[in-house]
Amino acid sequence: MKPAQAAFPRFRPVAEHAVLAEFGDVLTDEANKCVNHLDAALAATGFDGFIEAVPGYVSLLVAFDPIVTDHDRVAQVLSTLLSVTAVPGLAPQTHEVLISYDDDLSPDLDQVARHTGMTKDAVVASHLSGDYRVLMYGFAPGYAYLTGLPDNLHLPRKPSAKRAVPAGSVIIAGGQCLVTTLTMPTGWWIIGRSPTPILRPDPSRPFLFDVGDHVRFRRIGLADFNALSKG
Fold this sequence. Notes:
Strand content: 25-35%
Number of helices: 5
CATH architecture of the largest domain: Beta Barrel
CATH topology of the largest domain: Cyclophilin
Oligomer: single chain
Structural class: alpha+beta
Distance between the termini: 43 Å
């Protein structure tokens, strides 16, 4: 895997039991793809003393047993794995997520339209046109941070958070999109709601998406949303 930037990859020791593999100082698709590549390679092959890997936007934290190995040896293994081109499990999948933009389910859609200078229909069309990719999971179970939000929908977070935002809310902020899985507060803009379950009753695959997968949104009406939500 080609480094994302000239000074990268960079391997930093973390305490006595981990190495942080860094692929950039800022979020880029290339840096994130390097993270996904190394994460998949570790899942496929591992190494003596390997415990777990935790992906971030542009870095991967690799934890190991310090009784079995050390920072230098782990860094050498990671560097070797980056040169492997065929990595099992790296092929991304594309998932369809249903969304309703009905007024009762999109409390911030009017404000997003005003802030972007577009009509509500144009905001919806733009959101549906995005080709989204899962960058990472974080903050809460199943919170998949998606890149690919069209540029004309990039907005900063709201000045204050809204409480008790329902699970399934489709929210946007900055250049990212997310489908919430729990009832929680958020300072992101709520533009719709989805009945598509992200959390799964399968311990071996607890979330619908894998990091690196692609997501497409498909619009449904309120009646379909209600019927699917009850099901």
